[in-house]
Amino acid sequence: MKADPTTYQAVKSVLDNWAESYRQRDIQRLLASVAPDPDVIMYGTGADEKRIGIAGIQAQAERDWSQTESAAFILNETSISSAGSVAWAAADAVFQLTAGGQEMALPARFTAVLEKREDNWLIVQAHFSLPAPDQDEGQSFPA
Fold this sequence. Notes:
The protein is of the alpha+beta class. The protein has one domain (5-129): Nuclear Transport Factor 2, Chain: A (Roll), CATH 3.10.450.50.
């Protein structure tokens, strides 16, 4: 079910704050948006990017930052639904980065699950992916 306007705005604010803290390379602010649970999980775009727990998510962000001069993810067309104290979001996104002096804009996809704890929404699961570049439109699998 689509989130009511209050829930939508609260969850969107968490996601926007997470994206902004990533762009600013502010690890404390980034981690403040994530549940401090040992089983919080984030999947990135790389084959080895399965991060479990706060330490894993911190390690991934720091790895990203160490390999780029700048990095940001921009969320577009965000869909947010909720039921009780759980919300889930999906968005088309763009990774904008500069690495090795080369600027890139990579189309991406983002999904997340958040849980409301007291008055705060926290990310408990996140997933980033890149569409398969060699998969033709109308085809279900890459060539």
